[in-house]
Design brief:
Jelly Rolls, elongated, 2 domains, 6-stranded mixed beta sheet, single chain, 9 helices, alpha+beta, Nuclear Transport Factor 2, Chain: A
């Protein structure tokens, strides 16, 4: 039996340690306030904002409050088509991009407040801490009212700010309300990222989530292609990431879910390069239906479940601007964006109007939510060879297009010379079997 005096001593020691830890949290926040007040006169608004956010805010915790289960829910389509490891990596990659975008938004919003002198000098007026966290109330000499700063002690013992309440309402809640439409899980995380970064475009795919030499993360193929070699691999060269593709008979279509509103973002751009065209390729006929490069946009489905999709191609023989469709069920309309050998070996910028092409092919306007994307380099019908490269697929607002802000973004690839090993290998994985499969 433990003596009473020993038990009392133990309880006193625990209480003292807890008080010390709480005091540590109070002291840490007080030091940050003192540091901020001193730096106000030495640093510009943008530099001060970056310093405060990076030194004091736990971005992962703040992002948890803003995003909640949004990332997992918005990527639910991928769960049944990726193995557990791939799914976890894909979700983690998407979440990390959003955390970085949210940090940028915090920095820019704080910079704006500092520039307009909305936030002045700060003074601690109250504090309430326990060993794991606490709340400090701050008063500003530039604004009426007070700020409640919520601080948490991490597993590593470091203290960080996890949220701030203004007039009783958390900053994370304000962000959730501001981006409520983009936090709709019907749309891909790239849509929210674009909103947070205040971009004119959504980055649909830049292949940076994938490792060098891998099939791009999140992309899969049709059941019938499961046993075929996958002649696609992501490459990283001189800091730039792109997808290398080569086919001499496999004809494997890569597919990926991608959900955005094509009515709001109807202008699609990308970078591509063709090094070898399938001999005699002509997309109008089955026996010559090969393209050095093709990008599919899956808009929706017909009432019998057939995909409404358009394929944008680099054709061996058909002229630029040609629009056609093979006379078989579920075949896509195709639009020739580039043609022939004149520009082989060059990285080219491509731009298309999805709404215009949808109206000219399927008729009317597309639905407000797309289904996905596809990539295909093939030479099986002509029994020849095709080689191409893809990078930086974006969609832009029409307002940005009409204002002249849609510019060629492919310069960073033009000095690259693809490696000889770019298209030598491919890997296998779980097939994609979805409603957008043609």
């Amino acid at each position: 039996m433990i003596p009473r005096w020993a038990l009392c001593s133990l309880l006193l020691a625990v209480a003292t340690a807890a008080a010390d830890e709480a005091a540590d949290g109070h002291a840490w926040l007080a030091d940050r306030v003192t540091e901020y007040n001193e730096l106000r006169g030495r640093l510009g608004p943008a530099e001060l904002a970056r310093h405060v956010i990076d030194r004091s805010v736990d971005m992962d915790r703040f992002a948890d409050h803003v995003l909640r289960r949004y990332v997992t829910n918005s990527l639910a389509d991928f769960a049944e088509h990726l193995n557990d490891d791939e799914h976890d990596r894909y979700v983690a990659s998407a979440r990390q991009r959003l955390v970085e975008a949210l940090r940028q938004r915090l920095v820019e919003d704080l910079t704006d407040s500092l520039t307009k002198a909305v936030v002045g000098g700060l003074t601690v007026t109250d504090a309430d801490f326990d060993p794991t966290g606490g709340t400090v109330t701050l008063a500003s000499d530039a604004a009426a009212g007070e700020l409640d700063v919520h601080v948490l002690r991490g597993d590593n013992g470091d203290w960080r700010i996890e949220d701030i309440s203004i007039a009783g309402r958390g900053l994370s809640r304000r962000y959730r309300d501001r981006y409520e439409d983009a936090l709709d899980r019907r749309y891909s995380p790239a849509v929210l990222e674009a909103r947070l970064r205040q971009l004119d475009y959504i980055m649909l795919e830049d292949f940076t989530a994938s490792g060098d030499g891998d099939v791009p993360l999140g992309w899969r193929w049709r059941d019938r292609d499961e046993d075929r070699r996958k002649p696609y691999q992501v490459r990283l060269l001189d800091g730039q990431t792109y997808l290398a593709a080569q086919d001499s008979g496999g004809s494997v279509l890569l597919l990926r879910f991608a959900h955005w509103n094509p009515r709001q973002f109807p202008i699609m751009t990308w970078c591509w390069r063709a090094d070898s065209l399938p001999a005699g390729g002509d997309e109008r006929f089955g026996h010559t239906n090969d393209s050095a490069a093709g990008i599919y946009v899956f808009f929706s489905q017909t009432w019998i479940g057939m995909p409404r999709h358009i394929k944008y191609v680099w054709s061996s023989t058909l002229g630029e601007g040609f629009i056609g469709r093979r006379d078989r069920i579920a075949r896509p309309y195709f639009v020739v964006v580039e043609s022939g050998e004149e520009k082989l070996g060059e990285w080219l910028f491509a731009s298309v109007d999805l709404e215009e092409h949808y109206d000219r092919t399927w008729g009317g306007r597309p639905k407000s939510r797309t289904q996905g994307l596809g990539l295909l380099t093939d030479a099986n019908s002509t029994d020849s060879r095709a080689e191409a490269y893809y990078a930086d697929i974006r969609v832009w607002s029409r307002e940005a297009f009409e204002a002249g802000r849609v510019q060629d973004h492919c310069d960073c690839y033009r000095g690259l010379e693809p490696l000889e090993s770019d298209t030598e290998r491919g890997t296998a994985g779980v097939p994609l079997n979805s409603g957008m499969t043609p």
